[in-house]
Design brief:
Chain lengths: 502, 1051
């Protein structure tokens, strides 16, 4: 048998990679053929190749993935990952600890610390007083999960769709390594991001749009911890698997617009001429890369139409903006990005990831929370509702979470109204919704101080394994050989957390 | 299409055709009857499938069975079981296990997702039957220069390379491709050796040169071009993960361009590879190293560096050393040492202990573990360029000349000073002394408005001069917002102090009362005088204290000086006019001073620590570093008037100097005061210039090597056994004759006998020209790496490199003058199917240009390219707010010629690389990359079509087409096409291109507004006198040309 490891990783790789890259472009080739059919250019060899490929893929809905993938029937076809960068406070959002009122202001007991390392920011603190959460928590929905209803009134309304994990933990204690770990399964730069792994393993479901789209928020989602290209990068995978970054504004994808003064009609003409010249070159040189290039230029042209059409939300009815909030009209906002995420999901983009910065609350946490929740709560909830009403939630996995949690002890000034919290990797909360996750679930428990996990820990690798599982992928099988080793998203760890599955 | 390929129909071909599509090793297959080659046929199978559990890694070895050594594999496993019984497959447990039907017994186990093919199983049996011969992994064996193989075709070969290639092709029954057309060759050579295309004139010259050595002279010309060094530097910068920022979190700027320019220069000077290696790995350890050799060591400091406030220093000191070891291993040895960080290497014979032995060569440098947020982290060196050295010398000379001018007037000066001493010295005031750069001076001779009582009741008692502020430990003064004591600013504080006690007491401070404690302070602690700047406790602290204990009850003069370099070494304490010996208490002071502007400047107390008891007098604050001689003057206790009253012959040196300084500054005749100002200005001028000079992060050894321990599972604080510096045994053998430091390690690498260095370097050169190394996995020559396609050729090249005394240019010349390189890159149909990756080298290389060359070519043909070597990185066009949307840094776009420098000089922000280059597969520079990929994506098309730099290049190219291309469409098309391809268009191409150009003219006809907007893209000046609509059409045409497959491809 040929499992994909052998197939991809130690072959006469040159030849196979070629085949691979050509196969992956198959749907594009077909469209190109249709296009060239219209413009009546002779493309015998190319057309034949696409016909062959067409047959090859006749029974598949997606193109470019690895043979044998998905490994089993997927629950989710696509993912919308709402990354909350900076480390949201679990204590103030999901992990309700009423007992903290009684020990508020007192030193956190040594037994709770248990020798954990602190960051260089609070290691020098002489006092570690407990800071309770100042917010109102309620049991919401049928499931009766506790949520901070002051800050998350909208998410509270979709509580029964949420699969809350309260026992996440990570190895990293600082932002850069922690967020890199979440995105790539490793704290240091160089590994592929989740979306890139999925593009590599499962291929594309849409011939006019990228497989992996990343978006970043403007407004309250700027400032604070920076983001990096590597977070949606392809690492050692071919760079075509990297996330394509969409941004608000007139050029939603880099270099999408024709230069000022050049009409679309003229651009079309130039592409025809480029294609004709390239075809002659192919006839002379026979290099299959030339064929690929021809099809990629066509894909570029299609993106010039498909992307603006996608990002133009003016045709959305008013009810959409009631759902997501008025902010959703403004390009670049978190709400607008959530709406775009739905539109991308509708178009079968495989992996959609939003990055919202600004959750890093070392001091004045109530201000941070007010700002961050104020700009994300309604849109996050709106997205889930919207997906549900469109029948997309059942096969779209929504994930919400940051790179770590925050300490129960106070950093900076502790008053009745304000307090801060340092980074906390030992436990924090995230949630999933739809896509085969278990709705209305609350999984895992922490101790009375939300400091240590008391029950059912979930590591970052476990989460990755579970996400891949929902997409029909065995996390141990999705590998790529690099520097003599078969790498995978979950490194050498990770297990699927079964109770999280519906 | 004409085919020049002929295939001999023999059995071998039929077999290859059959297996070519499915097999992993189409060209390495053995058929029945052929002997097994352990390295080719067995070791990769064992390694890939078995070593993970039965390999070198002791800790995770299953069933005590080790299959990576012959001893292990043939050992008695007990109960009469042997994994391998040489000569007897049926007695060998291995054979039974790999063929087992029962899942329980089957190896590799099902859940490993590994399995053996029937052929692999068969070959293992055959190998055991033939005696299970074991060999060392090929790349660990010494290089033995192979004989040049005999070939049937005696005409084709031009040098040794070709003999090996041809022999292999003849074996396969394939004929090499004919030589490429001359136009193709000169373009290929120019792009390969200079990164730029040839001009039509250069093409014409080459076409017109029929002499037999025309090609070789062309190669020599290109190798001599300064562009050669730049082009060779690019892959080296990728491997060395060179960048202009730190790469973590905020990803702040650093300054390493002097190292980058060293690399370019080294290639242009043709520095031999052994020197190139030694200087980069250990230039600092050479006897009397010069500045260039020290700058070279920046290689090991190019890694990412974390400045996050929360990090644990020890953790990142380890990460830094890990990156150095992994990079050096990959670059010189093609080994993935990093695997052995956490456990013994699963495949290669590198133990975890050996890994940490290597770490110990690279972790003994005086570094903090935490990077500065903005700027170079220690250790670094001031590294002026040659012209900057000259400028500095001029400024020193200006100081000297100002001093000489004063000295020349000594007689007259003494005379007038004596007159003044006799008459006017009564009026002197201490505060008029050394006023330059002073923001605050206070004599404590009575209440002044600027100073107020903050706490308790300080009073004025008898001081060093007049009265002094006197504190009882519960009182202090405050001055509103005095002193911008940020760590990145220069400042000096001078004062007299007479402590009642030196046990404790904050003398001066300006600090915030919160847990970050930002601020500056001087205090007594346990007898020592401490001086510190805090930006964030304890993550950002620079603190020093005097080694000597101070004496209570006596007046002492103190000067605190910060040089603005944001580090403890930049802090100095002068006691009584002399630089005090100090020790560093903290050196994490790497942030910019985010100083609390609300905090008061306190005299006699602080917000942390006890208040001061004793007296303070004559406090002065400067926003510059004081010179040593100025501090000596300030430390002179005798007042100006008192000195003046002494006879000149009875004055001490410092008394004379103080009096003279005061006189020159305030009382001397105008011409002398002017001379004095000239000296002061010359000094200030030098200081400003000196501070602007570039620095480079470098390697340095600690006086005592840092102790190194194995880290269990690679975790920084899980200590295992202590290790000493030692080279890995599997490669170095048991003899360790090299110095146990980086110099020894570097010398070991290039001693000419190292099995890997030559092979790995030669393979990377090969990769540069052919797009594929002879060993495809250029980063991995270990057991899991690919076997070389031409093992003997690789060894011959490696040996040749040593034989040529590591002459780098000679190696390039050797490769590009081979017949192999000179082949046409057309793919005949038969060959395309048979050898799509061109492993057999039956044709020339054909590959899309690198991101750098793609842009550089566009700049070159447009006439915009500015050919200037080196200097600080430049910031060409980027999409608006591209950095700002993701990070906290603003992109400051360059202007003028910096927009058109070669891409090598484009600023590289590691976490957000230049987007058009990232799209075109540039290495990300986050870690060592020795071979970049070439992909083919729609985003690349969009960038080449629409990106500002490419559109601007098209417009400038368009201008050239209109001006230099003659008057007709046909002549303009020919000129333009030749400029980008080097060749004349075919008739069909000509027809298509002329038709296209006409269409663009029609399209813009009458659309003045559109045309005008289109041709105004970019900051370069619009050529006057051209019709905008004609230029828009020519620009469109140029835009099309710059997107043609042939144009963005080296063929």
């Amino acid at each position: 048998m040929e499992n994909h490891d052998n197939h991809f990783c130690r072959p006469l790789v040159d030849g196979e990679c070629h085949n691979y890259s050509r196969l992956s472009e198959n749907p594009l080739t077909m469209t190109r053929r249709q296009f060239f059919g219209k413009s009546a250019k002779g493309l015998g060899g190319v057309a034949l190749a696409s016909l062959l490929n067409e047959n090859l893929f006749a029974s598949q809905s997606s193109a470019g993935g690895l043979p044998g993938f998905p490994n089993f029937a997927p629950k989710a076809k696509r993912v919308i990952y709402l990354f909350q960068s900076g480390g949201p406070s679990q204590i103030d959002m999901f992990d309700y600890k009423p007992n903290l009122n009684e020990v508020h202001g007192q030193e956190v007991p040594d037994s709770v610390f248990n020798g954990q390392r602190l960051t260089g920011m609070t290691a020098g603190q002489t006092s570690f007083p407990v800071a309770r959460s100042i917010y109102n928590f309620e049991q919401v929905g049928q499931s009766g999960n506790w949520l901070n209803t002051d800050l998350m009134p909208h998410l509270a309304k979709v509580a029964d769709e949420l699969c809350i994990i309260k026992s996440m933990h990570t190895e990293a204690i600082n932002h850069d390594p922690a967020i890199t770990f979440f995105q790539s399964g490793f704290q240091l730069a160089g590994r592929p991001s989740i979306g890139a792994w999925l593009s590599y393993g499962l291929g594309s479901m849409n011939e006019d749009l990228p497989t992996f789209v990343a978006m970043t928020s403007s407004g309250s989602g700027t400032g604070g911890q920076p983001l990096y290209d590597r977070l949606w990068g392809a690492g050692f995978l071919p760079s075509k698997h990297q996330g394509v970054k969409f941004s608000g504004g007139k050029d939603p994808v880099l270099y999408l617009n024709n230069p000022d003064g050049m009409s679309s009609k003229l651009r079309r003409k130039t592409l025809d001429h480029i294609a004709t010249m390239n075809q002659m070159k192919f006839d002379d040189y026979g290099d299959p890369e030339i064929e690929t290039r021809i099809s990629q230029y066509e894909m570029a042209f299609r993106m010039q139409t498909s992307v603006p059409e996608l990002t133009d939300v003016s045709s959305e009815p008013d009810s959409t903006f009631e759902l997501y909030g008025e902010d959703a009209r403004k390009p670049g906002t978190y709400a607008n990005n959530c709406l775009l995420a739905r539109r991308l999901a509708e178009r079968d983009v495989r992996f959609i990831q939003l990055f919202h910065r600004g959750w890093d609350a070392h001091n004045n946490l109530p201000n941070v929370k007010k700002r961050q929740c104020g700009s994300t709560d309604q849109a996050s909830a709106g997205l889930i509702q919207d997906l549900k009403q469109r029948g997309l939630l059942k096969d779209t996995l929504v994930i919400w979470g940051g790179e770590f949690g925050r300490t129960v002890y106070c950093q900076d000034e502790l008053t009745d109204k304000t307090y801060g919290r340092d980074h906390h990797p030992r436990c924090f909360s995230m949630f999933m919704a739809g896509g085969g996750s278990n709705p209305g679930m609350s999984y895992g428990e922490t101790d009375d101080f939300s400091y240590n996990i008391a029950k059912d820990p979930v590591s970052v690798h476990d989460l990755h394994a579970t996400i891949l599982h929902l997409l029909g992928v065995d996390h141990k099988k999705l590998t790529y050989k690099f520097q003599g080793r078969h790498y995978r998203l979950t490194d050498v760890h990770g297990k699927v957390i079964k109770p999280l599955l519906a | 299409m004409s085919s020049t390929w002929t295939f001999r129909q023999n059995a071998k071909i039929a077999r290859l055709a059959l297996l070519g599509a499915a097999s992993a090793c189409a060209f390495a297959l053995v058929s029945k009857g052929e002997t097994i080659d352990f390295n080719r046929d067995i070791l990769p199978v064992l390694s890939d499938n078995c070593f993970k559990c039965h390999g070198p890694d002791e800790e995770f070895r299953e069933a005590d069975l080790r299959l990576d050594t012959r001893d292990g594999a043939t050992a008695d496993l007990g109960d009469g079981y042997f994994a391998i019984v040489p000569g007897n497959p049926s007695e060998s447990e291995v054979v039974w296990r790999i063929n087992a039907d029962d899942e329980e017994d089957l190896m590799p186990p099902k859940d490993s997702n590994l399995s053996l093919s029937p052929q692999e199983k068969e070959r293992i049996s055959q190998w055991i039957a033939e005696g299970a011969e074991w060999k060392n992994h090929w790349s660990f064996e010494p290089v033995v220069r192979p004989e040049l193989p005999e070939v049937e075709d005696s005409e084709w070969s031009r040098n040794g390379i070709d003999r090996f290639v041809l022999a292999r092709l003849e074996e396969e029954g394939i004929k090499p491709s004919p030589e490429a057309e001359k136009e193709t060759l000169i373009r290929r050579l120019s792009l390969d050796l200079t990164g730029l295309p040839p001009t039509p004139e250069e093409v014409d010259q080459f076409l017109g040169d029929d002499s037999p050595d025309a090609y070789e002279r062309l190669v020599d010309r290109l190798l001599a071009s300064p562009r050669y060094g730049e082009t060779m530097a690019l892959p080296w910068l990728d491997a060395a993960r060179y960048a202009d920022t730190d790469g973590y979190q905020n990803d702040g700027p650093r300054e390493m361009w002097r190292w980058r320019d060293w690399v370019i220069d080294a290639y242009n000077q043709n520095k031999p590879f052994d020197e190139f290696t030694i200087e980069q790995l250990a230039g600092d350890l050479l006897p009397n190293p010069n500045l260039d050799q020290i700058i070279a060591t920046g290689f090991n400091r190019n890694h990412r560096y974390n400045s996050e406030a929360g990090i644990v220093f020890e953790e990142f000191r380890l990460e830094n050393a890990v990156d150095r070891v992994d990079t050096a291993s990959t670059v010189w040895m093609g080994l993935t040492m990093g695997c052995a960080r956490c456990h013994d290497h699963k495949y290669d014979p590198i133990s975890t202990k050996e890994y940490y032995q290597l770490i110990s060569y690279f972790n003994s440098i005086p570094e903090s573990g935490r990077a500065k947020k903005f700027g170079n982290s220690e250790p670094w060196i001031l590294s002026p360029t040659k012209s900057q050295f000259e400028e500095l010398a001029r400024k020193d000379a200006a100081i000297e000349s100002a001093r000489d001018a004063l000295e020349k007037e000594e007689n007259e000066l003494s005379r007038t000073q004596a007159l003044w001493e006799a008459n006017g010295s009564e009026a002197s005031r201490e505060t008029e002394l050394l006023k330059q750069g002073r923001t605050f001076a206070y004599s404590f001779d009575g209440n002044e408005a600027s100073v107020s009582v903050l706490k308790g009741q300080p009073w004025f008692g008898k001081g060093i001069s007049g009265t002094a502020a006197t504190f009882d430990g519960e009182s202090s003064f405050a001055v509103e917002s005095e002193g911008t004591f940020a760590s990145e600013h220069q400042f000096s504080v001078s004062f007299w102090v007479k402590p009642d006690s030196v046990d404790e007491g904050v003398i001066l401070s300006r600090q915030d009362d919160n847990q970050k404690r930002p601020g500056v302070a001087a205090e007594f602690k346990d007898g020592h005088l401490q001086f510190y700047i805090i930006t964030r406790w304890i993550a950002g602290v620079g603190a020093i204290e005097t080694l000597e204990k101070q004496v209570p009850g006596e007046w002492m003069h103190v000067a605190l000086v910060n040089d603005g370099t944001k580090r403890s070494q930049g802090l100095r304490i002068f006691v009584n006019g002399k630089l005090a010996d100090t020790r560093i208490l903290h050196n994490s002071n790497s942030n910019d001073g985010q100083f609390a502007k609300k905090a008061q400047f306190r005299i006699g107390g602080g917000v942390f620590g006890a208040d001061f008891q004793g007296q303070i007098d004559e406090l002065r604050i400067y926003t510059r570093e004081l010179w040593d001689d100025e501090i000596a003057i300030l430390a002179e206790s005798l007042g100006i008037r008192e000195i003046a009253l002494k006879k000149p012959s009875q004055r001490s040196v410092s008394e004379s100097a103080k009096l003279r300084a005061y006189y020159l500054e305030n009382e001397a005749p105008q011409n002398f005061r002017d001379l004095y100002s000239r000296l002061i200005d010359a000094r200030a001028d030098r200081t400003v210039y000196y501070d602007s000079l570039p620095t480079t992060m470098i390697m340095q050894e600690l006086p005592e090597p840092r102790e190194t321990f194995v880290r269990k599972r690679g975790v920084y604080n899980q200590f295992g056994e202590k290790v000493e510096r030692k080279l890995p045994a599997a490669i170095s053998g048991s003899e360790q004759k090299f110095l146990p430091n980086r110099l020894g390690l570097a010398q070991w690498l290039v001693n000419g006998e190292h099995p890997l260095t030559g092979r790995v370097a030669a393979n990377r050169y090969w990769l540069k020209y052919f797009g594929r190394g002879l060993v495809k996995t250029a980063e991995d020559f270990g057991i899991q790496g690919e076997r070389p396609s031409h093992p003997e050729l690789l060894d011959w090249l490696a040996d040749e490199f040593v034989r040529l005394n590591w002459d780098v240019k000679a190696m390039q010349k050797l490769i590009v003058t081979s017949a192999t390189y000179r082949q046409s890159s057309r793919m005949a149909p038969g060959l395309r199917e048979r050898d799509p990756g061109n492993i057999l080298l039956a044709r020339g290389p054909r590959e899309r240009l690198s991101s750098h060359a793609t842009r550089d070519q566009a700049l070159a043909v447009s006439g915009l390219l500015v050919e200037k070597i080196g200097g600080p990185s430049v910031s060409p066009y980027q999409p608006e707010r591209f950095w700002e949307l993701l990070s906290n840094m603003k992109y400051k776009q360059s202007s003028g010629e910096d927009l058109y420098r070669r891409s090598l000089y484009t600023i590289w922000k590691r976490t957000i690389p230049p987007p058009s280059m990232a799209v075109l597969d540039a290495a990300d520079r986050e870690s060592c990359i020795v071979s970049t990929k070439r992909t083919n994506t729609p985003l690349q098309a969009l960038a080449l079509l629409n990106e500002k730099a490419f559109v601007e290049a098209a417009r400038n190219f368009g201008q050239r087409i209109l001006i230099e291309g003659g008057d007709s469409i046909e002549s303009q098309v020919e000129f333009a096409f030749r400029s980008v391809t080097g060749r004349y268009p075919s008739e069909r191409e000509r027809a298509v291109l002329c038709g296209a150009y006409r269409e663009y003219k029609d399209e813009f006809n009458g659309k003045l507004d559109e045309a005008d907007r289109f041709i105004r893209i970019g900051e370069s000046k619009l050529q006057e006198g051209l019709d905008p609509m004609q230029l828009a059409a020519a620009t469109t045409f140029a835009n099309v040309l710059l997107n043609l497959d042939e144009v963005i491809t080296k063929e």
